[in-house]
TrEMBL record:
One of its GO terms (molecular function) is penicillin binding. It is found in: Membrane. It holds the Pfam family Transpeptidase. GO terms for cellular component: plasma membrane. PANTHER family: PEPTIDOGLYCAN D,D-TRANSPEPTIDASE, PEPTIDOGLYCAN D,D-TRANSPEPTIDASE FTSI. This is Stage V sporulation protein D. Keywords: Membrane.
């Protein structure tokens, strides 16, 4: 070819490129919308691809994930686009863990495309990707999918909640779902032969993915684990229906642990982990209203002191029972063969858990002021933790036997409250008489929630005085909680067991018991309040000291260790005396109210 021919060929080639480029420019730029419309109408070319948003994580106060999206890959094969080689399928099997025979059978059956239900881990996906590249197998698909991982499992399920089929069903996963879920991305446009979107053919309806925001709780994951394990052992060894533990900071209201048992594995929803539970997602800490029992005597005394109807030098003559109304009486339980405590001052009344004293104080306060306190303290309201299905305390006014009801209020009967609500009110004693609103959620999307003061329940003088009486429960050799000491630390606490109403008969006969313990750690300048409730123990023991007490001890030991609380100055490091727990139950019959107390 001469030089003239070469030039003509070059110009013709260049012109061809210009025409092709112009055509592409006309299609991709000037007629872009028309091409997209044609693709959408035909349904053959336009691709809509959803990019799932990452669900926000739920974190503990010590920055441990309680719920998070775990990255995984959905594995699939487009058989027309992979080599038909037994060696290829053997390598793919070794990388993915899926039998080569299964893949070969699917190809032989005529299936063109298939995806496996169980996602691959990232490590397996990386090995599959290596096989895909090595064999140039475009038909190997690895689509990124999200799974929900719950690192604390059953220990935090009652608070964190869970997803079922990608939908939140309980706990923080439900209540903060709008914050956590984010918005999926959507890409609409035309793709090339390899499935990649053509940059100039992206539909304007395309939306950018927006990931969900994180939620940080006030829970300390270490305390949550300890409390759950201790509670599990107590519920199972005592053949109880359920149990609850609340640990909170009385200075801030922050909930450091909120354990329940039975629980469930949020990653494997279905049957509960534990026996005889009606609802797998039932957390009695905030869903159940239970009788507080003798632990409430502490609040009755604080209220009586605050109202000025009792003073520090008062004594009560306890003959074992107190007639309140008509032929109805409240009584104390048997102590050494007698119900009578004799002459008891305030400290002895608390350390011995005297029902007659508590009833006397309540009667002095009077029904209007006592009921006003129940309402003002927040016991009869929901605690607004930010959790679904939260219960509130309640009582029914008994105008017929008002005096009898008031007397039983004194030792925590004839009313119910949630464990977390009761813990919040008790915590005021460790904060100079001021109750802080319980707080479970510390941050939402990086924004701090505020600590909130709920109001003053008692003066500082009253709170400190009652706290001293609570010390005697554990530190006195005659106290009902003397078996619950921790070497090196002075503690304050109160044991209690309440009889439950039998819903079939409306009486306490056969209604079971609620075994309780509440304590502050340490007694001076408390850093944590611990409340334990064990519902309906049926293995023979039901006193608060013996059933709920061990859970308190294990939790308190974890508190002083993990929070770095120094030992009490001058406190001897001696073991707790090995003594049988004192009785702590209020017994009520058709004619008598009250009973053993601890």
């Amino acid at each position: 070819m001469n030089s003239r021919g070469i030039k003509v060929f070059a110009w013709l080639t260049l012109a061809g490129f210009v025409v092709a480029a112009g055509s592409q420019a006309r299609l991709q730029v000037f007629r872009r919308d028309a091409v997209l419309d044609l693709g959408e109408k035909s349904g053959r070319f336009l691709v809509k691809r959803v990019e799932p948003a990452r669900r926000g994580a739920i974190l503990s106060a010590d920055n441990r994930p309680l719920a998070q999206d775990a990255s995984a890959r959905e594995f699939g094969l487009i058989f027309d686009d992979v080599p038909f080689s037994r060696t290829f399928f053997m390598e793919l099997s070794e990388a993915s863990g899926i039998p080569a025979s299964e893949m070969l059978q699917l190809k032989a059956s005529g299936v063109r495309t298939t995806f496996w239900r169980e996602p691959l881990t990232e490590s397996k996906a990386k090995r599959v990707e290596d096989v895909k590249i090595r064999w140039r197998a475009d038909g190997v698909s690895l689509r990124r999918v999200a799974e929900r991982d719950y690192p604390l499992g059953i220990a935090a399920a009652g608070v964190v909640g869970a997803l079922r089929d990608g939908k939140p069903i309980t706990g923080i996963e439900v209540s903060k779902s709008k914050t956590l879920e984010g918005h999926d991305g959507l890409t609409i446009g035309l793709t090339d032969s390899k499935g990649k979107f053509l940059p100039m053919r992206i539909d304007p309806r395309t939306k950018t993915r927006v990931d969900g925001e994180d939620v940080v709780l006030t829970l300390d994951s270490r305390l949550q684990l300890v409390a759950t394990q201790a509670l599990k052992e107590a519920v199972e060894s005592n053949n109880a229906d359920q149990g609850a533990v609340v640990i909170l900071n009385p200075k801030t209201g922050d909930i450091l642990a909120m354990a329940n048992w039975p629980s469930y594995d949020p990653a494997r929803l279905g049957r509960p982990t534990g026996s005889k539970e009606r609802f797998t997602d039932f957390n009695p800490n905030y869903m159940a209203a239970l009788e507080p029992g003798s632990t409430f005597k502490i609040l009755t005394l604080a209220l009586a002191l605050e109202k000025g109807v009792v003073n520090s030098t008062d004594v009560v003559q306890c003959g074992g029972s107190l007639q309140v109304w008509s032929n109805r009486s409240v009584r104390c339980d048997l102590h050494g063969g007698t119900r009578a405590h004799g002459t008891v001052d305030l400290e002895k009344a608390i350390s011995k858990s005297c029902n007659v004293s508590a009833a006397t104080w309540a009667l002095r306060v009077g029904s209007p002021d006592f009921i006003e306190f129940l309402n003002r303290s927040g016991l009869m309201r929901k605690t607004q933790l930010g959790l679904p299905l939260e219960a509130s305390g309640q009582f029914v006014r008994d105008e017929y036997a008002k005096g009898l009801q008031l007397a039983t209020f004194g030792f925590g009967q004839s009313m119910t409250c949630t464990p977390v609500g009761l813990a919040s009110v008790f915590s005021a004693l460790g904060n100079g008489g001021v109750r802080m609103e319980p707080r479970l959620i510390a941050k939402v999307g990086g924004r701090d929630t505020k600590e909130r003061e709920a109001g003053r329940l008692f003066s500082k003088e009253t709170a400190d005085q009652v706290l001293g009486y609570m010390e005697s429960v554990i530190e006195s050799d005659s106290g009902t909680g003397k078996s619950l000491r921790i070497p090196g630390y002075r503690l304050a606490g109160k044991t209690g067991t309440a009889q439950k109403i039998n819903r079939s008969t409306g009486t306490v006969e056969g209604g079971g018991y609620v075994s309780n313990f509440v304590g502050l750690v340490p007694a001076q300048n408390p850093q944590a309040l611990i409340l334990v409730m064990i519902d309906n123990p049926k293995a023979g023991k039901y006193y608060g000291a013996s059933v709920a007490g061990p859970v308190f001890v294990e939790s308190a030991q974890a508190v002083v260790r993990l929070l770095g609380i120094p030992p009490t100055p001058g406190k001897d490091v001696v073991p707790s005396p090995k003594a049988s727990p004192s009785p702590d139950i209020e017994i009520r019959s058709t004619k008598q109210q009250g009973g053993a107390s601890n």
